[in-house]
Amino acid sequence: MKRFKKKLIFLALGIVTPLSFTTSRVNASSFGAEIFCTMREGGNDHESSWDAAYSYIKKQKGGLFKVSPKNAAAQITETVIREREKFSYCVEYLDNLHPNRKLLRDLEKEEERKEKEAKDRENKRKKLEKELEEANEEISEEFTDETLDRYSY
Asked: pTM (2 decimals)?
């Protein structure tokens, strides 16, 4: 009898839990899209509109795992496309939600390359300074006071 009750409880939780998460996700993404589109239409820049919408979607999601920025952008895009009549003015702003990933990767690689070159230059400079110091020490050891005395014959 106890086994049956446990199975029944797990079955009920298994059915109810996904439904409650799905409803909140749909509402959160819908209102997140509304926040984003309204702010953009009102003249706000992409960053402030995105931050407001993403913060709302994260807050409404709840649960153990938070929504990633990529996932939140996809939710906003899905909502705008699904409800085209309501968000017809917002389609032009969707490209900012999904930046060119290849361009971003190329920029990151270029930045890493520049940092590596700067480190290499710094290492070469330090190596040359060290060699110069060693050479100066050798020269100073070779020339004692006697060899530098110009009147000693």
From this structure: 0.50
